[in-house]
Amino acid sequence: MDWFSGLSPDEWSALRLSLKVSLVAALVTLPVALGLAFALARGRFRGKALLDGLVLLPLVLPPVVTGYVLLILLGRRGPIGAFLDQTFGIVFAFRWTGAALACAVMGLPLMVRTMRLAIEGVDRRLEAAAATLGANPAQTFFCVTLPLIWPGMLAGFVLGFAKAMGEFGATITFVANIPGETQTLPSAIYSLTQTPGGDAAAMRLTLVSIIVSLGAVLVSELLVRRAARRLEAGDAQG
Amino acid sequence: MLKVDVRKRLGALDLDCTFEAGPGVTILFGRSGSGKTSLLNMIAGLLRPNEGSIAFDEQTISDSRTGAFTPPHRRRFGTVFQDALLFPHMNVRANLDFGRRFSSAAADPRSFERIVEMLGIGDLLERRPANLSGGEKQRVAIGRALLSNPRLLLLDEPLASLDQERKDEIMPYLERLRTQAQAPMIYVTHSMAEVTRLADRIVLLREGKIAAAGAPQDVLHRADLLDAAEASATAAPFDAVVAHVEADGLAALDCALGRILAPAQGLAPGARLRIQILARDVLIATEKPQGLSALNVIEARVVCVRPRSAAIADVELACGESRLWAHVTRRSADALKLAPGALVFAIVKSVALNPAG
Lengths: 238, 357
Known about the structure:
The complex is a heterodimer.
Chain A: H1 2-5, H2 9-42, H3 48-60, H4 63-74, H5 79-88, H6 96-120, H7 124-132, H8 137-166, H9 169-175, H10 185-193, H11 199-232
Helix pairs in contact in A: 2-6, 2-8, 3-6, 4-9, 6-8, 6-9, 7-8, 8-11, 10-11
Chain B: E1 2-10, E2 13-21, E3 25-29, H1 36-44, E4 51-56, E5 59-63, E6 68-69, H2 72-75, E7 77-80, H3 92-102, H4 111-119, H5 134-147, E8 152-156, H6 164-180, E9 185-189, H7 192-198, E10 201-206, E11 209-214, H8 216-220, H9 228-232, E12 235-245, E13 250-255, E14 258-263, E15 272-278, E16 282-285, E17 296-307, E18 312-319, E19 322-329, H10 330-335, E20 343-348, E21 354-356
Protein backbone atom coordinates (compact mmCIF):
# COMPACT_ATOMS: atom_id res chain seq x y z
CA MET A 1 0.00 0.00 0.00
CA ASP A 2 3.07 2.16 0.02
CA TRP A 3 2.60 3.24 -3.53
CA PHE A 4 -0.89 4.49 -2.91
CA SER A 5 -0.08 6.81 -0.02
CA GLY A 6 2.73 7.95 -2.20
CA LEU A 7 0.58 9.67 -4.83
CA SER A 8 2.23 13.00 -5.52
CA PRO A 9 0.22 16.25 -5.42
CA ASP A 10 0.21 16.30 -9.22
CA GLU A 11 -1.10 12.74 -9.36
CA TRP A 12 -3.83 13.52 -6.83
CA SER A 13 -4.79 16.51 -8.86
CA ALA A 14 -5.06 14.40 -12.00
CA LEU A 15 -7.32 11.90 -10.19
CA ARG A 16 -9.53 14.65 -8.75
CA LEU A 17 -9.77 16.35 -12.11
CA SER A 18 -10.64 13.10 -13.86
CA LEU A 19 -13.43 12.39 -11.39
CA LYS A 20 -14.79 15.94 -11.70
CA VAL A 21 -14.61 15.97 -15.49
CA SER A 22 -16.22 12.53 -15.82
CA LEU A 23 -19.02 13.26 -13.36
CA VAL A 24 -19.87 16.59 -14.98
CA ALA A 25 -19.68 15.05 -18.45
CA ALA A 26 -22.01 12.19 -17.50
CA LEU A 27 -24.47 14.49 -15.71
CA VAL A 28 -24.64 16.99 -18.56
CA THR A 29 -25.00 14.26 -21.17
CA LEU A 30 -27.79 12.48 -19.30
CA PRO A 31 -30.74 14.74 -20.27
CA VAL A 32 -29.39 15.24 -23.80
CA ALA A 33 -28.94 11.50 -24.28
CA LEU A 34 -32.42 10.83 -22.86
CA GLY A 35 -33.99 13.27 -25.29
CA LEU A 36 -32.08 11.82 -28.23
CA ALA A 37 -32.89 8.26 -27.15
CA PHE A 38 -36.61 9.11 -27.05
CA ALA A 39 -36.47 10.82 -30.43
CA LEU A 40 -34.68 7.85 -31.99
CA ALA A 41 -36.78 5.18 -30.25
CA ARG A 42 -40.18 6.73 -30.85
CA GLY A 43 -39.92 9.69 -33.15
CA ARG A 44 -41.01 9.59 -36.75
CA PHE A 45 -39.39 12.44 -38.61
CA ARG A 46 -37.32 13.17 -41.67
CA GLY A 47 -33.61 12.83 -41.15
CA LYS A 48 -33.93 10.29 -38.35
CA ALA A 49 -31.33 8.03 -39.96
CA LEU A 50 -28.99 11.00 -40.27
CA LEU A 51 -29.46 11.93 -36.62
CA ASP A 52 -28.84 8.31 -35.66
CA GLY A 53 -25.62 8.35 -37.65
CA LEU A 54 -24.46 11.68 -36.17
CA VAL A 55 -25.03 10.43 -32.63
CA LEU A 56 -23.02 7.28 -33.34
CA LEU A 57 -20.24 9.11 -35.17
CA PRO A 58 -17.94 9.69 -32.15
CA LEU A 59 -17.99 5.92 -31.57
CA VAL A 60 -16.51 5.10 -34.95
CA LEU A 61 -14.37 8.16 -35.71
CA PRO A 62 -10.78 8.25 -34.49
CA PRO A 63 -10.96 10.21 -31.19
CA VAL A 64 -8.33 12.57 -32.55
CA VAL A 65 -10.73 13.58 -35.32
CA THR A 66 -13.55 14.23 -32.86
CA GLY A 67 -11.20 16.32 -30.73
CA TYR A 68 -9.99 18.23 -33.73
CA VAL A 69 -13.55 18.94 -34.94
CA LEU A 70 -14.35 20.25 -31.46
CA LEU A 71 -11.27 22.45 -31.60
CA ILE A 72 -12.25 23.85 -34.99
CA LEU A 73 -15.85 24.54 -33.96
CA LEU A 74 -15.43 25.48 -30.31
CA GLY A 75 -11.91 26.86 -30.15
CA ARG A 76 -11.68 30.60 -29.36
CA ARG A 77 -11.56 31.38 -33.07
CA GLY A 78 -14.04 28.71 -34.08
CA PRO A 79 -17.49 29.87 -35.23
CA ILE A 80 -19.32 28.54 -32.19
CA GLY A 81 -16.48 29.09 -29.74
CA ALA A 82 -16.08 32.76 -30.71
CA PHE A 83 -19.82 33.34 -30.39
CA LEU A 84 -19.98 31.73 -26.94
CA ASP A 85 -16.93 33.63 -25.78
CA GLN A 86 -18.19 37.04 -26.96
CA THR A 87 -21.84 36.59 -25.98
CA PHE A 88 -21.68 34.62 -22.75
CA GLY A 89 -18.02 34.65 -21.86
CA ILE A 90 -17.95 30.85 -22.01
CA VAL A 91 -14.66 29.34 -23.08
CA PHE A 92 -14.07 25.63 -23.61
CA ALA A 93 -10.65 25.56 -25.23
CA PHE A 94 -7.85 24.54 -22.85
CA ARG A 95 -10.17 24.55 -19.83
CA TRP A 96 -11.41 21.65 -17.73
CA THR A 97 -14.93 22.38 -19.03
CA GLY A 98 -13.59 21.62 -22.50
CA ALA A 99 -12.30 18.29 -21.24
CA ALA A 100 -15.77 17.58 -19.86
CA LEU A 101 -17.32 18.51 -23.20
CA ALA A 102 -14.98 16.21 -25.10
CA CYS A 103 -15.82 13.37 -22.71
CA ALA A 104 -19.54 14.13 -23.04
CA VAL A 105 -19.42 13.95 -26.83
CA MET A 106 -17.43 10.71 -26.72
CA GLY A 107 -19.79 9.15 -24.15
CA LEU A 108 -23.00 10.25 -25.87
CA PRO A 109 -23.34 7.32 -28.31
CA LEU A 110 -22.96 4.78 -25.50
CA MET A 111 -25.54 6.54 -23.33
CA VAL A 112 -28.01 6.97 -26.18
CA ARG A 113 -27.70 3.33 -27.26
CA THR A 114 -28.28 1.99 -23.75
CA MET A 115 -31.23 4.27 -23.06
CA ARG A 116 -32.75 3.70 -26.46
CA LEU A 117 -32.80 -0.05 -25.84
CA ALA A 118 -34.49 0.56 -22.49
CA ILE A 119 -37.12 2.84 -24.06
CA GLU A 120 -37.83 0.38 -26.84
CA GLY A 121 -38.34 -2.27 -24.17
CA VAL A 122 -41.26 -0.38 -22.60
CA ASP A 123 -44.66 -1.78 -23.53
CA ARG A 124 -46.38 1.33 -24.86
CA ARG A 125 -49.75 -0.13 -24.01
CA LEU A 126 -48.82 0.47 -20.35
CA GLU A 127 -48.75 4.17 -21.20
CA ALA A 128 -52.09 3.81 -22.96
CA ALA A 129 -53.46 2.14 -19.83
CA ALA A 130 -52.19 5.05 -17.72
CA ALA A 131 -53.93 7.50 -20.04
CA THR A 132 -57.27 5.71 -19.76
CA LEU A 133 -56.88 5.95 -15.99
CA GLY A 134 -56.69 9.73 -16.23
CA ALA A 135 -52.94 10.39 -16.24
CA ASN A 136 -51.89 13.18 -18.61
CA PRO A 137 -48.76 12.72 -20.76
CA ALA A 138 -46.42 14.29 -18.17
CA GLN A 139 -47.87 12.22 -15.33
CA THR A 140 -47.63 9.10 -17.47
CA PHE A 141 -43.98 9.88 -18.22
CA PHE A 142 -42.97 10.41 -14.61
CA CYS A 143 -45.08 7.66 -13.04
CA VAL A 144 -44.85 4.92 -15.68
CA THR A 145 -42.25 5.46 -18.40
CA LEU A 146 -39.41 6.87 -16.30
CA PRO A 147 -39.54 4.20 -13.57
CA LEU A 148 -39.59 1.50 -16.26
CA ILE A 149 -36.51 2.81 -18.08
CA TRP A 150 -34.68 3.68 -14.86
CA PRO A 151 -32.32 0.66 -14.97
CA GLY A 152 -31.36 1.56 -18.54
CA MET A 153 -30.74 5.19 -17.60
CA LEU A 154 -28.57 4.12 -14.70
CA ALA A 155 -26.58 1.74 -16.88
CA GLY A 156 -26.18 4.47 -19.51
CA PHE A 157 -25.02 6.98 -16.92
CA VAL A 158 -22.35 4.70 -15.49
CA LEU A 159 -21.21 3.69 -18.95
CA GLY A 160 -20.87 7.36 -19.87
CA PHE A 161 -18.95 8.03 -16.67
CA ALA A 162 -16.59 5.09 -17.23
CA LYS A 163 -16.05 6.13 -20.83
CA ALA A 164 -15.20 9.66 -19.66
CA MET A 165 -12.68 8.30 -17.14
CA GLY A 166 -10.87 6.61 -20.00
CA GLU A 167 -11.25 9.27 -22.68
CA PHE A 168 -7.87 10.43 -23.97
CA GLY A 169 -7.61 11.16 -27.70
CA ALA A 170 -10.35 13.74 -28.11
CA THR A 171 -9.51 15.40 -24.80
CA ILE A 172 -5.80 15.86 -25.47
CA THR A 173 -6.50 17.13 -28.99
CA PHE A 174 -9.17 19.62 -27.90
CA VAL A 175 -7.83 20.93 -24.59
CA ALA A 176 -4.20 19.70 -24.53
CA ASN A 177 -2.49 18.37 -21.42
CA ILE A 178 -2.19 21.14 -18.85
CA PRO A 179 -1.48 19.90 -15.30
CA GLY A 180 -4.16 21.05 -12.88
CA GLU A 181 -6.48 22.26 -15.65
CA THR A 182 -6.91 19.62 -18.35
CA GLN A 183 -4.53 16.85 -17.36
CA THR A 184 -6.85 13.93 -16.61
CA LEU A 185 -5.65 10.47 -15.52
CA PRO A 186 -5.04 9.14 -19.05
CA SER A 187 -3.21 12.31 -20.07
CA ALA A 188 -1.08 12.14 -16.92
CA ILE A 189 -0.25 8.49 -17.56
CA TYR A 190 0.64 9.34 -21.14
CA SER A 191 2.97 12.16 -20.01
CA LEU A 192 4.62 9.93 -17.44
CA THR A 193 5.34 7.22 -20.00
CA GLN A 194 7.05 9.87 -22.09
CA THR A 195 9.19 11.01 -19.14
CA PRO A 196 12.41 9.20 -18.19
CA GLY A 197 11.94 7.58 -14.75
CA GLY A 198 8.18 8.03 -14.82
CA ASP A 199 7.39 4.30 -14.96
CA ALA A 200 6.59 3.85 -11.26
CA ALA A 201 4.23 6.83 -11.24
CA ALA A 202 2.60 5.65 -14.46
CA MET A 203 2.03 2.26 -12.85
CA ARG A 204 0.45 3.87 -9.77
CA LEU A 205 -1.95 5.91 -11.84
CA THR A 206 -2.75 2.89 -14.02
CA LEU A 207 -3.78 0.94 -10.92
CA VAL A 208 -5.87 3.87 -9.70
CA SER A 209 -7.51 4.04 -13.09
CA ILE A 210 -8.34 0.33 -13.07
CA ILE A 211 -9.79 0.54 -9.55
CA VAL A 212 -12.04 3.52 -10.32
CA SER A 213 -13.34 2.08 -13.60
CA LEU A 214 -13.90 -1.39 -12.21
CA GLY A 215 -15.64 0.10 -9.18
CA ALA A 216 -17.96 2.12 -11.39
CA VAL A 217 -18.89 -0.89 -13.50
CA LEU A 218 -19.48 -3.09 -10.43
CA VAL A 219 -21.64 -0.48 -8.71
CA SER A 220 -23.69 0.01 -11.87
CA GLU A 221 -24.14 -3.75 -12.29
CA LEU A 222 -25.40 -3.94 -8.71
CA LEU A 223 -27.80 -1.01 -9.05
CA VAL A 224 -29.13 -2.14 -12.41
CA ARG A 225 -29.73 -5.65 -11.14
CA ARG A 226 -31.55 -4.36 -8.09
CA ALA A 227 -33.70 -2.04 -10.20
CA ALA A 228 -34.50 -4.81 -12.68
CA ARG A 229 -35.45 -7.15 -9.86
CA ARG A 230 -37.89 -4.58 -8.55
CA LEU A 231 -39.63 -4.60 -11.91
CA GLU A 232 -39.78 -8.33 -12.33
CA ALA A 233 -40.65 -9.81 -8.98
CA GLY A 234 -39.40 -9.59 -5.45
CA ASP A 235 -42.12 -8.32 -3.10
CA ALA A 236 -39.50 -8.17 -0.38
CA GLN A 237 -37.63 -5.24 -1.89
CA GLY A 238 -40.78 -3.14 -1.96
CA MET B 1 -75.47 7.21 -23.62
CA LEU B 2 -72.62 6.61 -26.04
CA LYS B 3 -73.10 7.40 -29.72
CA VAL B 4 -70.54 6.06 -32.13
CA ASP B 5 -70.42 6.79 -35.84
CA VAL B 6 -66.91 6.13 -37.15
CA ARG B 7 -64.99 4.97 -40.16
CA LYS B 8 -61.41 3.79 -40.08
CA ARG B 9 -59.14 2.06 -42.54
CA LEU B 10 -57.14 -0.70 -40.82
CA GLY B 11 -54.94 -2.57 -43.26
CA ALA B 12 -57.26 -4.74 -45.32
CA LEU B 13 -60.23 -3.99 -43.08
CA ASP B 14 -62.61 -1.11 -43.63
CA LEU B 15 -64.25 -0.34 -40.34
CA ASP B 16 -67.56 1.46 -40.66
CA CYS B 17 -69.68 1.37 -37.52
CA THR B 18 -72.65 3.28 -36.21
CA PHE B 19 -74.25 2.25 -32.94
CA GLU B 20 -75.45 3.47 -29.60
CA ALA B 21 -74.87 2.06 -26.16
CA GLY B 22 -77.05 2.87 -23.17
CA PRO B 23 -76.93 1.74 -19.55
CA GLY B 24 -75.94 -1.82 -18.70
CA VAL B 25 -73.61 -4.08 -20.64
CA THR B 26 -73.28 -3.63 -24.39
CA ILE B 27 -71.35 -6.47 -25.95
CA LEU B 28 -69.32 -5.92 -29.10
CA PHE B 29 -69.42 -9.43 -30.47
CA GLY B 30 -67.53 -10.81 -33.44
CA ARG B 31 -64.77 -13.07 -34.66
CA SER B 32 -61.17 -12.05 -34.20
CA GLY B 33 -60.23 -9.62 -36.94
CA SER B 34 -63.71 -8.16 -37.19
CA GLY B 35 -62.48 -4.84 -35.82
CA LYS B 36 -64.06 -4.88 -32.39
CA THR B 37 -60.88 -4.07 -30.44
CA SER B 38 -60.06 -1.21 -32.82
CA LEU B 39 -63.57 0.09 -32.29
CA LEU B 40 -63.08 -0.05 -28.53
CA ASN B 41 -59.72 1.74 -28.85
CA MET B 42 -61.44 4.52 -30.77
CA ILE B 43 -63.98 4.90 -27.98
CA ALA B 44 -61.13 4.97 -25.44
CA GLY B 45 -59.32 7.64 -27.48
CA LEU B 46 -56.28 5.45 -28.15
CA LEU B 47 -57.01 5.35 -31.87
CA ARG B 48 -58.30 8.20 -34.01
CA PRO B 49 -61.08 7.50 -36.49
CA ASN B 50 -60.40 8.61 -40.07
CA GLU B 51 -63.87 10.00 -40.18
CA GLY B 52 -66.95 10.34 -38.03
CA SER B 53 -67.81 11.28 -34.50
CA ILE B 54 -68.15 9.87 -31.02
CA ALA B 55 -70.31 11.46 -28.35
CA PHE B 56 -70.91 10.56 -24.74
CA ASP B 57 -73.81 12.01 -22.76
CA GLU B 58 -74.44 14.68 -25.41
CA GLN B 59 -70.80 15.75 -25.26
CA THR B 60 -68.75 15.32 -28.43
CA ILE B 61 -65.42 13.68 -27.66
CA SER B 62 -64.26 13.09 -31.21
CA ASP B 63 -65.39 14.68 -34.46
CA SER B 64 -63.44 14.52 -37.70
CA ARG B 65 -65.31 17.49 -39.20
CA THR B 66 -64.44 19.99 -36.48
CA GLY B 67 -61.18 18.28 -35.51
CA ALA B 68 -62.42 17.99 -31.93
CA PHE B 69 -60.65 15.25 -30.01
CA THR B 70 -60.69 14.67 -26.29
CA PRO B 71 -57.48 12.83 -25.29
CA PRO B 72 -57.96 9.56 -23.40
CA HIS B 73 -56.96 10.96 -20.02
CA ARG B 74 -59.81 13.48 -20.12
CA ARG B 75 -62.47 10.98 -21.21
CA ARG B 76 -62.56 9.05 -17.95
CA PHE B 77 -63.41 5.80 -19.69
CA GLY B 78 -61.82 3.14 -17.48
CA THR B 79 -60.39 0.41 -19.67
CA VAL B 80 -59.59 -3.23 -18.93
CA PHE B 81 -57.26 -4.77 -21.50
CA GLN B 82 -56.99 -8.38 -22.58
CA ASP B 83 -53.68 -8.86 -20.80
CA ALA B 84 -54.35 -6.75 -17.70
CA LEU B 85 -51.40 -4.35 -18.31
CA LEU B 86 -50.74 -3.78 -14.63
CA PHE B 87 -47.82 -1.47 -13.91
CA PRO B 88 -44.97 -3.90 -13.13
CA HIS B 89 -43.07 -1.47 -10.91
CA MET B 90 -45.95 -0.94 -8.51
CA ASN B 91 -47.60 -3.30 -6.08
CA VAL B 92 -51.30 -4.09 -6.32
CA ARG B 93 -52.30 -1.30 -3.95
CA ALA B 94 -50.40 1.31 -5.97
CA ASN B 95 -51.89 -0.06 -9.18
CA LEU B 96 -55.39 0.26 -7.72
CA ASP B 97 -54.64 3.79 -6.50
CA PHE B 98 -53.20 4.90 -9.83
CA GLY B 99 -56.49 6.07 -11.29
CA ARG B 100 -57.50 7.79 -8.07
CA ARG B 101 -54.28 9.80 -8.05
CA PHE B 102 -55.15 11.37 -11.37
CA SER B 103 -58.91 11.32 -11.42
CA SER B 104 -60.12 14.89 -11.08
CA ALA B 105 -63.45 13.69 -9.74
CA ALA B 106 -62.77 12.64 -6.17
CA ALA B 107 -63.97 9.10 -5.74
CA ASP B 108 -65.85 8.06 -2.65
CA PRO B 109 -63.09 7.05 -0.17
CA ARG B 110 -65.15 4.02 0.86
CA SER B 111 -65.15 2.75 -2.69
CA PHE B 112 -61.66 1.28 -2.26
CA GLU B 113 -62.75 -1.18 0.43
CA ARG B 114 -65.98 -1.93 -1.41
CA ILE B 115 -64.31 -2.71 -4.73
CA VAL B 116 -61.44 -4.64 -3.16
CA GLU B 117 -64.01 -6.77 -1.38
CA MET B 118 -66.21 -7.21 -4.43
CA LEU B 119 -63.23 -8.49 -6.44
CA GLY B 120 -61.76 -10.56 -3.62
CA ILE B 121 -58.29 -9.01 -3.91
CA GLY B 122 -57.80 -7.92 -0.29
CA ASP B 123 -54.99 -10.45 0.26
CA LEU B 124 -53.05 -9.34 -2.79
CA LEU B 125 -52.59 -5.65 -1.98
CA GLU B 126 -48.88 -5.81 -1.12
CA ARG B 127 -47.97 -8.21 -3.94
CA ARG B 128 -46.38 -7.25 -7.23
CA PRO B 129 -48.02 -8.06 -10.57
CA ALA B 130 -45.23 -10.51 -11.45
CA ASN B 131 -46.35 -12.67 -8.52
CA LEU B 132 -50.03 -12.82 -9.45
CA SER B 133 -51.82 -15.49 -11.46
CA GLY B 134 -53.52 -14.50 -14.71
CA GLY B 135 -56.92 -14.45 -13.04
CA GLU B 136 -55.71 -12.35 -10.12
CA LYS B 137 -54.08 -9.86 -12.49
CA GLN B 138 -57.30 -9.44 -14.41
CA ARG B 139 -59.30 -8.88 -11.21
CA VAL B 140 -56.82 -6.20 -10.14
CA ALA B 141 -57.07 -4.62 -13.60
CA ILE B 142 -60.85 -4.47 -13.27
CA GLY B 143 -60.51 -2.93 -9.83
CA ARG B 144 -58.00 -0.39 -11.09
CA ALA B 145 -60.36 0.70 -13.86
CA LEU B 146 -63.33 0.92 -11.47
CA LEU B 147 -61.38 2.99 -8.94
CA SER B 148 -60.56 5.63 -11.54
CA ASN B 149 -64.22 6.57 -11.12
CA PRO B 150 -65.04 6.02 -14.80
CA ARG B 151 -68.04 7.42 -16.62
CA LEU B 152 -67.93 4.41 -18.91
CA LEU B 153 -66.17 1.07 -18.49
CA LEU B 154 -64.49 -0.51 -21.51
CA LEU B 155 -63.49 -4.17 -21.36
CA ASP B 156 -61.43 -5.66 -24.19
CA GLU B 157 -61.74 -9.46 -24.09
CA PRO B 158 -60.81 -9.53 -20.41
CA LEU B 159 -61.08 -13.33 -20.29
CA ALA B 160 -59.63 -14.27 -23.68
CA SER B 161 -56.07 -14.91 -22.54
CA LEU B 162 -57.11 -17.06 -19.57
CA ASP B 163 -57.67 -20.80 -19.36
CA GLN B 164 -61.14 -22.15 -18.62
CA GLU B 165 -60.50 -22.46 -14.90
CA ARG B 166 -59.47 -18.82 -14.65
CA LYS B 167 -62.43 -17.76 -16.75
CA ASP B 168 -64.74 -19.53 -14.33
CA GLU B 169 -62.92 -17.79 -11.49
CA ILE B 170 -63.53 -14.30 -12.88
CA MET B 171 -66.96 -14.66 -14.44
CA PRO B 172 -68.83 -14.35 -11.11
CA TYR B 173 -67.04 -11.03 -10.46
CA LEU B 174 -68.04 -9.74 -13.87
CA GLU B 175 -71.62 -10.77 -13.23
CA ARG B 176 -71.56 -8.98 -9.91
CA LEU B 177 -70.11 -5.96 -11.68
CA ARG B 178 -72.93 -6.07 -14.19
CA THR B 179 -75.50 -5.64 -11.46
CA GLN B 180 -73.51 -3.28 -9.21
CA ALA B 181 -71.48 -0.95 -11.42
CA GLN B 182 -73.01 2.45 -11.96
CA ALA B 183 -71.13 3.12 -15.17
CA PRO B 184 -72.34 1.57 -18.42
CA MET B 185 -70.04 -1.08 -19.85
CA ILE B 186 -68.83 -1.84 -23.37
CA TYR B 187 -67.54 -5.40 -23.43
CA VAL B 188 -65.64 -6.86 -26.37
CA THR B 189 -65.64 -10.63 -26.81
CA HIS B 190 -65.87 -13.47 -29.29
CA SER B 191 -67.14 -15.93 -26.70
CA MET B 192 -70.81 -16.88 -26.80
CA ALA B 193 -70.63 -17.99 -23.17
CA GLU B 194 -69.71 -14.46 -22.09
CA VAL B 195 -72.41 -12.98 -24.29
CA THR B 196 -75.19 -15.04 -22.81
CA ARG B 197 -74.09 -14.41 -19.27
CA LEU B 198 -73.44 -10.69 -19.45
CA ALA B 199 -75.21 -9.03 -22.36
CA ASP B 200 -77.96 -6.47 -21.97
CA ARG B 201 -77.44 -5.47 -25.57
CA ILE B 202 -75.41 -6.98 -28.39
CA VAL B 203 -73.69 -5.26 -31.27
CA LEU B 204 -72.66 -7.92 -33.76
CA LEU B 205 -69.62 -7.09 -35.89
CA ARG B 206 -68.75 -8.77 -39.14
CA GLU B 207 -65.71 -7.64 -41.12
CA GLY B 208 -65.78 -4.12 -39.77
CA LYS B 209 -69.51 -3.59 -40.27
CA ILE B 210 -72.36 -3.93 -37.83
CA ALA B 211 -74.43 -6.94 -38.84
CA ALA B 212 -77.03 -6.64 -36.11
CA ALA B 213 -77.64 -4.75 -32.89
CA GLY B 214 -80.24 -5.10 -30.21
CA ALA B 215 -81.34 -7.14 -27.21
CA PRO B 216 -79.74 -10.60 -26.87
CA GLN B 217 -83.12 -12.15 -27.60
CA ASP B 218 -83.29 -10.39 -30.95
CA VAL B 219 -79.70 -10.89 -32.07
CA LEU B 220 -78.91 -14.39 -30.87
CA HIS B 221 -81.67 -16.08 -32.82
CA ARG B 222 -80.25 -14.73 -36.06
CA ALA B 223 -78.64 -18.07 -36.85
CA ASP B 224 -77.86 -16.74 -40.30
CA LEU B 225 -75.48 -14.26 -38.69
CA LEU B 226 -73.72 -16.61 -36.32
CA ASP B 227 -71.22 -19.21 -37.34
CA ALA B 228 -71.52 -22.84 -36.31
CA ALA B 229 -69.28 -22.63 -33.26
CA GLU B 230 -71.13 -19.60 -31.95
CA ALA B 231 -74.54 -21.07 -32.61
CA SER B 232 -73.79 -24.43 -30.99
CA ALA B 233 -73.37 -22.55 -27.74
CA THR B 234 -76.57 -20.64 -28.36
CA ALA B 235 -78.33 -20.04 -25.13
CA ALA B 236 -81.26 -17.93 -24.19
CA PRO B 237 -80.39 -15.63 -21.29
CA PHE B 238 -83.09 -14.64 -18.83
CA ASP B 239 -82.93 -12.27 -15.92
CA ALA B 240 -84.74 -13.84 -13.02
CA VAL B 241 -85.72 -13.08 -9.44
CA VAL B 242 -85.92 -15.72 -6.74
CA ALA B 243 -89.56 -15.82 -5.60
CA HIS B 244 -89.06 -18.34 -2.84
CA VAL B 245 -86.88 -21.29 -1.93
CA GLU B 246 -88.60 -24.59 -1.30
CA ALA B 247 -87.71 -27.06 1.42
CA ASP B 248 -86.22 -29.54 -1.04
CA GLY B 249 -83.56 -27.08 -2.19
CA LEU B 250 -85.28 -25.85 -5.32
CA ALA B 251 -85.80 -22.17 -5.97
CA ALA B 252 -88.84 -20.81 -7.76
CA LEU B 253 -87.61 -18.21 -10.22
CA ASP B 254 -89.75 -15.58 -11.90
CA CYS B 255 -88.57 -14.65 -15.36
CA ALA B 256 -89.96 -13.87 -18.77
CA LEU B 257 -90.83 -17.54 -19.25
CA GLY B 258 -93.05 -17.52 -16.18
CA ARG B 259 -92.19 -19.42 -13.04
CA ILE B 260 -89.48 -22.04 -13.35
CA LEU B 261 -87.66 -24.24 -10.87
CA ALA B 262 -83.92 -24.50 -10.51
CA PRO B 263 -81.49 -25.63 -7.81
CA ALA B 264 -81.30 -22.84 -5.25
CA GLN B 265 -77.54 -23.11 -4.70
CA GLY B 266 -77.57 -20.82 -1.71
CA LEU B 267 -79.75 -18.14 -3.29
CA ALA B 268 -82.08 -16.21 -1.00
CA PRO B 269 -85.56 -14.95 -1.92
CA GLY B 270 -85.36 -11.63 -3.74
CA ALA B 271 -81.93 -12.39 -5.19
CA ARG B 272 -81.49 -11.40 -8.83
CA LEU B 273 -79.65 -13.68 -11.20
CA ARG B 274 -79.29 -14.53 -14.83
CA ILE B 275 -80.07 -18.00 -16.04
CA GLN B 276 -79.22 -19.39 -19.40
CA ILE B 277 -81.03 -22.13 -21.19
CA LEU B 278 -78.75 -23.85 -23.67
CA ALA B 279 -80.37 -25.01 -26.89
CA ARG B 280 -79.05 -28.54 -26.34
CA ASP B 281 -80.81 -28.77 -22.96
CA VAL B 282 -84.30 -28.12 -24.38
CA LEU B 283 -86.61 -30.96 -25.44
CA ILE B 284 -89.76 -30.50 -27.50
CA ALA B 285 -93.05 -32.34 -27.07
CA THR B 286 -96.22 -31.81 -29.07
CA GLU B 287 -98.45 -32.94 -26.20
CA LYS B 288 -98.21 -32.05 -22.55
CA PRO B 289 -95.96 -34.79 -21.24
CA GLN B 290 -96.97 -37.07 -18.35
CA GLY B 291 -94.76 -38.99 -15.98
CA LEU B 292 -91.69 -36.90 -16.73
CA SER B 293 -88.83 -36.14 -14.39
CA ALA B 294 -88.19 -32.71 -15.88
CA LEU B 295 -89.92 -30.03 -13.80
CA ASN B 296 -90.12 -27.16 -16.23
CA VAL B 297 -92.61 -27.55 -19.04
CA ILE B 298 -93.17 -24.33 -20.94
CA GLU B 299 -95.88 -23.75 -23.50
CA ALA B 300 -94.45 -22.24 -26.64
CA ARG B 301 -95.06 -21.70 -30.31
CA VAL B 302 -92.63 -22.70 -33.07
CA VAL B 303 -91.25 -19.65 -34.86
CA CYS B 304 -89.08 -21.44 -37.35
CA VAL B 305 -87.06 -24.59 -37.95
CA ARG B 306 -83.63 -24.17 -39.48
CA PRO B 307 -81.35 -27.01 -40.54
CA ARG B 308 -78.03 -26.69 -38.79
CA SER B 309 -76.28 -29.70 -40.27
CA ALA B 310 -77.23 -32.87 -42.13
CA ALA B 311 -78.81 -34.33 -39.01
CA ILE B 312 -79.54 -31.44 -36.65
CA ALA B 313 -82.03 -28.61 -36.79
CA ASP B 314 -82.45 -25.46 -34.71
CA VAL B 315 -85.96 -24.82 -33.53
CA GLU B 316 -86.77 -21.32 -32.46
CA LEU B 317 -89.61 -21.08 -29.96
CA ALA B 318 -91.62 -18.09 -28.85
CA CYS B 319 -92.92 -17.98 -25.33
CA GLY B 320 -94.77 -14.72 -24.95
CA GLU B 321 -92.22 -12.07 -25.85
CA SER B 322 -89.29 -14.35 -25.14
CA ARG B 323 -87.31 -16.65 -27.38
CA LEU B 324 -85.93 -20.05 -26.66
CA TRP B 325 -83.93 -22.43 -28.84
CA ALA B 326 -83.85 -26.18 -29.06
CA HIS B 327 -81.46 -28.40 -30.96
CA VAL B 328 -83.32 -31.46 -32.24
CA THR B 329 -82.56 -34.06 -34.86
CA ARG B 330 -84.10 -33.38 -38.23
CA ARG B 331 -85.75 -36.78 -38.02
CA SER B 332 -87.59 -35.68 -34.86
CA ALA B 333 -88.50 -32.37 -36.39
CA ASP B 334 -90.09 -34.20 -39.30
CA ALA B 335 -91.76 -36.84 -37.10
CA LEU B 336 -93.31 -34.16 -34.85
CA LYS B 337 -94.24 -32.07 -37.87
CA LEU B 338 -92.62 -29.02 -36.34
CA ALA B 339 -93.57 -26.07 -38.46
CA PRO B 340 -93.97 -22.34 -37.83
CA GLY B 341 -97.04 -21.71 -35.71
CA ALA B 342 -97.22 -25.18 -34.16
CA LEU B 343 -98.06 -25.23 -30.46
CA VAL B 344 -95.51 -27.26 -28.50
CA PHE B 345 -94.16 -27.82 -25.02
CA ALA B 346 -90.56 -26.98 -24.29
CA ILE B 347 -89.09 -29.16 -21.58
CA VAL B 348 -86.15 -27.91 -19.57
CA LYS B 349 -84.49 -30.03 -16.93
CA SER B 350 -84.13 -28.06 -13.73
CA VAL B 351 -80.62 -29.37 -13.14
CA ALA B 352 -79.59 -28.04 -16.53
CA LEU B 353 -80.49 -24.50 -15.60
CA ASN B 354 -77.39 -22.52 -15.22
CA PRO B 355 -77.73 -19.84 -12.58
CA ALA B 356 -75.00 -17.38 -13.32
CA GLY B 357 -74.08 -15.33 -10.29
